[in-house]
Amino acid sequence: MLVLGIESSCDETGAALVRDGRYLLSNVVASQIEIHNRYGGVVPEVASRQQIAAIIPVVETALAQASCSWEDVDAIAATYGPGLAGSLLVGLTVGKTLSLARELPFLGVNHLEAHLYANWLRPQAETATAAPLPQQEWRYQSGDPLFPLICLVISGAHSEIVLVRDHGDYELLGRTRDDAAGEALDKVSRVLGLGYPGGPAIQRMAQQAEDAYAQQKKSIKKARSVYRLPRAWLRGTYDFSFSGVKTAMLHLAEGATDAARTHEDGKPSTQYTRYTRMGEQAAQAGAPDVALLASGFQEAIVDVLATKTRMAAQEHQVKQVILAGGVAANLSLRARMLQELQPLGIRLSYPPIEFCTDNAAMIASAAFFHLSLGEHHGMDLDVQPGLSLPFRK
Ligand code: ATP
Ligand code: MG
Ligand code: FE
Predict the structure, then answer these.
(1) What residues line ligand 1, using a CB cutoff of 6 Å?
(2) N or C: which end of the chain has fewer CB within 10 A?
């Protein structure tokens, strides 16, 4: 089954063609990162306008890159939530309209569920040699994640530990009580003057500090410990809280960039601009404290995420853990998760970097499994900006 997937929940416009939920024929993403970088975050009104401009060329390019015509496509899928209403409307409307025009089945996809299904996507090399899948074998192929599994969902707006017993069977074990991990990374990056999106920027800075300390044969652990960054363990639960460490970082960022204050021209400015400008100067001067701070902050977040996920995997005796969402691209988190799980014989999987952040390949993959269960949606399906994973009670 060949599915055309469409993604437009936030500031990425994506279209992809995926066969049997696993094999990627094409994946096109138009990103607005450079536009939103100017504002330090996503501006909803700007995002939806950009979606409108990008969507048709992106769909056409995806078909062309897959060397597909409409006759090859079996179904169309588009994200219907969660996300920004104006952005979601663009992809959903285009998806529904195309399915009407081409007389193809349509399915609305839950964006969070799609982040999970990025783990079912195969390396491109496998696509070339894969035979079409017999319909009765849709549920499991060797190389797929094994149920039951624990999924750590860590994206721009969500941080959750979820027990997944089978396709479509989700139980929420814990979630963030305030900020999502990605949200905290983005906010801290902004006050450090490192730009948007924050995750990759913090990772880069942290790596710089870690390399520098390793080269000088000094302990970065010891150096970081002076910051006393708090970790909210919320013992007895699988919940997270990242607002404490975020606030500590905001105070430290001000102190760490004190030295740069003398370079200010003295003109009054909002606190936000002041933070940003000082952070930029400190970063440009290669001030080691900003890099060290980034490393300490990343470590504080990774420590809690990895420890709690490992505990959930042990309690529920699963053989597999998967990571999902933009923050799953983080190399430090991946390495730490492996360290936690390998000694226990628990398998870890995460999507390739480009399928961690928003893309349409994951939409087409998730759609395949629902379509295989006989599901589809009518033209009356509306956007649901606040949609969550479909948890069992
Ligand atoms: P949601 O999926 O919850 O609706 P979203 O779609 O905005 O939110 P994603 O696209 O899944 O979120 O992820 C974006 C987030 O991932 C951003 O917060 C970004 O900083 C973070 N991120 C991207 N790459 C990395 C990385 N290498 N390390 C850490 N975080 C990263
Ligand atoms: Mg995004
Ligand atoms: Fe996302």
Answers:
(1) 9-10, 82-83, 111, 115, 155-158, 182, 185-186, 197-200, 203, 325-327, 329-330, 357-358
(2) C
